[in-house]
Design a protein that fits this description.
The structure holds two protein chains of two kinds. By secondary structure, chain A is α/β, with parallel strands linked by helices. Chain A contains 19 helices and twelve strands. Chain B has one domain: 3-Layer(aba) Sandwich (Rossmann fold), CATH 3.40.50. By secondary structure, chain B is an alpha/beta fold. The chains are: A alpha/beta, B alpha/beta. The complex binds flavin-adenine dinucleotide (FAD).
Chain lengths: 570, 248
């Protein structure tokens, strides 16, 4: 009997083949209809207004968010009884994918529906939910999340904003400045973190209209200029005690859990972003002629498309596998937030891989447009600026990389994951299957297990300080997660012929990257001896990379679009 | 008031149609299908009439089981229930009109609203034939519809400009492009649509023979146009028109 995968790091265990993973091929007709509705909204309401959005036309962003509220796109994570439609994570993530056509709008949408609204969904009291969620679901009120300060970014818990109980015990008096707060220019509700008596990190719901709240000027940014980014200034703001969010002193629980969703969502936003970039670039490559040929006829241009498509296929496979596991965990236990916590290793991987793929896509697409890409008259220059933020917020990619092996090993130590046995059992003399996708999956999984185990043994508690090792391990786990997700999606697909070219191309290019990363790491960790021991696992796939990528490009040009996933015909 | 509104499943207008190699039709495999845009306008108008006057909007479509998607799209916009007449292959406008007539006789609506034509074969016949078969008044190419009591007043787009006519219900209206802008289906609307009833009938159950009266022998792509030429001056142009194109 098959069951749905519902736990983290399934990619590390070879004995989980009785589990099915969620794949885009399993989207329901309803999910596809919802995706289509939001995609139509984005196409008609957002995309034509890119220039106005970029110019920060007063009132426009808030109006667009409210319009999205009008079709119900802001209430997907909010329960029915609070005015939302309470869908599962897969559905709400699909909406994030379909809305991500304009960077500034996507970020504003994400800040409102994600980090702005979810703290109340997860941690609000019934009374707080009744009071705020219905208006947040429709967009009547808009939300922001205020964690960062001038002196505390990655080290968010070092915040200096304070909360002191008023003499009558009815209010917390908040003081401090929160920097770079998305949506601050128009938001009505702020989730603010401050320390009670300078020590206990706590979440508060602050309203724009409370005395002592003011907003600094708009920042001038490299990209996503349409999104509002300002300082939130709190001067003796009396926040009613009923507005404490969660337990006093437990604000980090809110901050971190909300980030788990944000990271996952960022990965899925990147799926939509890469698709959007490809869609804008292909027509140009077809029309522009040099040396008597359309650009799309040149193998090096085709290779750029193919490389991105193969990685897009992997990102999409990993992203919806994770949302599916979250939904399955939630269905089993009824605990949605715990489900997000369970999958937080995957969320960090998705954040890093998604933001970096999106960056490469913008960079390569701009290159395909050549000098025209560099001109602001064409959309790619703006996209290039817009995508850069994704490697910085929701935890920088450095922080997220360190979390991957960090969280994994913590779970292993606590005995929550049967990893110690798996480390022991993993061996470089494992038999390697013939098929390239299978083979790459086994190589990557075995490398991840052996190298994580070795690093843990070698550095013990000191591993935390070995940042280079942590980052290398994160990339190795990303490859293992990606390959396993792609292999399973392929195996589960009804029409494998549609998947094979992408799966093969991805396996080959991911193995090339993995060999460089893991090979170097093995040398760093155990010298030539370890490298030699791992030699069978560090061998490139014995097939032509060029041929595999050309096959992807041929299919792509024939079809005129990425042919799998949401937004295409089932 | 009770309104019967029809929707047809057609190819997405963003897709460039390709004729099948054997000429028997166009390729629909892997092609996105949508609600005929004129029918979407018809649905919007029906919903507006219902919002003003109360009542019920019933969506009817004819096609394979897949056509349920288009019925659900109209239900997501706000229509109340659906009817699907199951038919494989092509149904010509005359057969469609007779099927709609059969459903009309079951449902007894006050008004039937159709798109003025479907963007696939652009026949623009079903509405007119339906009114004829039912012996009801028809107001085609509507750009404005008002209902007061039993009387429907319709502004029509005709060649010479606009014409206003009125009739007493029941009757048939077909929607033109400028009648309204269809609403977005809301996401909760889409989720609710799943729970709305869609009844299915076969043509046989409705007592209608849908054997086509018009037989399509073969489809061919139009000949590719020759590339244009740039000419240096008027004299060359006239020369080419006279000698090569033989247009003068
Ligand atoms: C456009 C924009 C919108 C934003 N929106 C919001 C918002 O809505 N709400 C909000 O609260 N915040 C927001 N932020 C803030 C954002 O979350 C922070 O910028 C981010 O957390 C990084 O903090 P920092 O900028 O202070 O960088 P720093 O923490 O100073 O980091 C600088 C560099 O050092 C690295 N680094 C830091 N610590 C370590 C370490 N331990 N080991 C190794 N390397 C390290 C980082 O990876 C980075 O490369 C926004 C920022 C921007 C630019």
């Amino acid at each position: 009997m098959t069951t749905r995968e519902s736990r983290c790091v399934g990619y590390l265990f070879s004995d989980r083949s009785h589990e099915t993973i969620m794949t885009p091929e399993m989207f329901t007709a309803e999910q596809r209809a919802l995706f289509g509705a939001v995609a139509a909204f984005t196409e008609k309401e957002v995309v034509p207004r890119r220039k106005e959005i970029e110019a920060k036309t007063p009132g426009l962003m808030a109006a667009l968010l409210k319009k999205a509220g009008g079709i119900g796109a802001l209430g997907l994570d909010i329960a029915d009884e609070h005015g939302g439609s309470g869908t599962d994570k897969t559905t709400s993530m699909l909406m994030a994918e379909s809305i991500s056509r304009e960077g500034g709008f996507a970020v504003s949408f994400g800040a409102h529906t994600g980090i702005g609204t979810l703290p109340i969904v997860f941690f609000g009291t019934d009374e707080q939910k009744q009071r705020y969620l219905p208006a947040l679901a429709t967009g009547e009120k808009l939300a922001a999340y205020a964690l960062t300060e001038a002196g505390s970014g990655s080290d968010a818990l070092a915040a200096r904003a304070t909360a002191t109980l008023s003499a009558d015990g009815k209010h917390w008096i908040l003081n401090g400045q929160k920097q770079w707060i998305t949506n601050a220019g128009f938001a009505d509700v702020f989730i603010v973190f401050a320390k009670i008596d300078g020590t206990q990190f706590t979440g508060f719901i602050v309203e724009r209209g409370m005395p002592g709240v003011s907003i600094g000027p708009e920042e001038h940014k490299l990209g996503i200029r349409g999104s509002s980014t300002c300082t939130l200034i709190l001067e003796n703001v009396p926040v009613p005690v009923q507005n404490v969010l969660g337990e006093p002193g437990r604000g980090h629980r809110i901050a971190f859990n909300v980030l788990n969703v944000g990271r996952l969502k960022l990965g899925v936003f990147a799926v939509g972003g890469v698709k959007s970039i490809l869609r804008e670039t292909l027509p140009y490559a077809r029309e522009r002629r040099q040396f008597g040929k359309a650009l799309i006829e040149f193998p090096l241009i085709r290779e750029k498309f193919a490389t991105l498509l193969a990685d897009l296929y992997a990102l999409e496979s990993m992203g919806y596998r994770a949302t599916g596991a979250i939904d399955a965990y939630t269905a089993e236990t009824g605990k949605g937030m715990e489900a997000l916590e369970e999958l937080n290793i995957e969320s960090s991987i998705l954040k890093v891989f998604g933001s970096e793929l999106l960056g490469r896509a913008a960079d390569e697409a701009l290159q395909i447009l050549g000098g025209y890409g560099y001109m602001e008259d064409y959309p790619l220059a703006k996209v290039y600026r817009d995508v850069r933020i994704n490697r910085i917020f929701e935890g920088t990619n450095e922080i997220n990389r360190m979390l991957v092996p960090g969280v994994l090993l913590k779970r292993a130590m606590k005995g929550q994951l049967p990893l110690m046995d798996a480390f022991q059992a993993a061996s470089a003399s494992v038999s390697l299957p013939e098929d390239v996708v299978d083979r790459a999956t086994v190589q990557a999984r075995t490398l991840a297990l052996i190298l994580t185990g070795r690093a843990a043994m070698q550095f013990m508690q000191g591993l935390e300080e070995e940042q280079e090792a942590l980052a290398a391990l994160a990339d190795i786990h990303q490859a293992a997660f990606g390959l396993d997700s792609v292999r399973r999606r392929l195996v589960q697909a009804d029409n494998q012929a549609l998947h094979l070219p992408l799966a093969r191309a991805y396996a080959i290019q991911e193995m090339d990257r993995l060999i460089a990363r893991a090979g170097r790491f093995a040398l760093d960790l155990g010298g030539a001896e370890l490298h030699a021991e791992l030699a069978p696992l560090l061998a490139p796939l014995p097939v032509s990379r060029t041929a595999a990528l050309r096959e992807v490009a041929t299919r792509y040009v024939e079809r005129g679009q990425y042919w799998l996933g949401a937004g295409t015909v089932a | 008031m009770k309104i019967l509104v029809t929707v047809k499943r057609v190819m997405d207008y963003n897709v460039k149609p390709k004729v099948k190699p054997d000429g028997s039709g166009v390729v629909t495999d892997g092609v996105n299908m949508i609600v005929n845009p004129f029918d979407e306008i018809a649905v919007e108008e029906s919903l507006k009439l219902k919002e003003k006057n109360g009542g019920e909007v019933v969506v009817l479509s004819i096609g394979t089981k897949d056509t349920t998607t288009q019925i659900r799209a109209a239900l997501a916009m706000g229509a109340d229930r659906g009817i699907l007449v199951l038919a494989d292959g092509s149904v010509d406008p005359d057969a469609a009109a007779r099927l709609i007539k059969a459903v009309y006789e079951q449902e007894k609506p006050d008004l039937v609203v159709l798109g003025k034509q479907a963007i696939d074969d652009d026949s623009s016949q079903a509405g007119q034939l339906l009114a004829e078969y039912l012996g009801l008044p028809q107001a085609t190419f509507a750009s404005k519809v008002d209902v007061a009591g039993k009387t429907v007043t319709v502004t029509r787009e005709v060649d010479g400009g606009l014409e206003t006519i009125s009739f007493d219900m029941p009757g048939v209206v077909t929607a033109d492009l400028r009648l309204n802008t269809p609403r977005y289906a809301s996401l909760p609307g889409i989720m609710k649509a799943k729970k709305k009833e869609v009844k299915e009938f076969t043509p046989a159950a409705l007592g209608v023979d849908i054997a086509p009266k018009v037989k399509v022998l073969k489809l061919e792509e139009p000949k590719a146009r020759q590339a244009g030429q740039k000419v240096p001056d008027v004299a060359t142009l006239v020369g080419k028109l006279r000698n090569e194109a033989k247009a003068l």
